[in-house]
């Protein structure tokens, strides 16, 4: 390499020779990289991420910004034949839910860099499906919900019977009922699974038969028609007229006169 001490000699006529020593130091900026591991939720300490400042001269400095996360850091350096150094820093921690979603930053510093290099990432933990439940999302569909990472797959079945292809349609987490047929009732299961495990939930579906709108309208029209026929029959045979006359000519009872009123009436007469 060209690194070393260099001499500059120059001659002045009156003062003679002059010599100046110049030191040349070569700076090599680090090649930075960050690798975050696929971490599964658990209770034992595991490797979370590794940050590297490779082939630097002088050696680069690696540090972590972790906020309130409870982690542990180890750092080691390897010197190469070309006088460069690779510094590797590892981040360890117990993968609990408190760590999930935490912002972590790897920071690399070096005199060969104009500014520090920041490499941020969000710590994501992977876990099997949990808290599986089935809710009614609308009048004609069920929704299976769960917490899982990565995204799970959903499988709908009906206990003891095949899933009726013509009556329901499964679309991922949703089970949609296409009709209100009574043969759709039964115990339905939703199984949620990913690479790390599976869990299921079940719900019993009661189906109430509902008359179609056309049938309801038909009954209303039939009732109106029946009322018109009854009214016409009464009018045709005079039932309505007789009832009206009887009501009109019926004697209305009067109140009894008081003794004073009878005396006045007798005086007038």
Automatic annotation (TrEMBL):
One Gene Ontology cellular component: adherens junction
Main location: membrane
Ig-like domain mapped to chain residues: 29-119, 120-211
One protein family per Pfam: C2-set_2
SUPFAM superfamilies hit by this protein: Immunoglobulin
Biological processes per GO annotation: heterophilic cell-cell adhesion via plasma membrane cell adhesion molecules; homophilic cell adhesion via plasma membrane adhesion molecules
Subcellular location as annotated: Membrane
Listed transmembrane segments: 216-238
UniProt keyword list: Cell adhesion, Disulfide bond, Glycoprotein, Membrane, Repeat, Signal, Transmembrane, Transmembrane helix
Signal peptide (from-to): none
Similarity-based family: Belongs to the nectin family.
Protein name: Ig-like domain-containing protein
Provenance organism: Gouania willdenowi
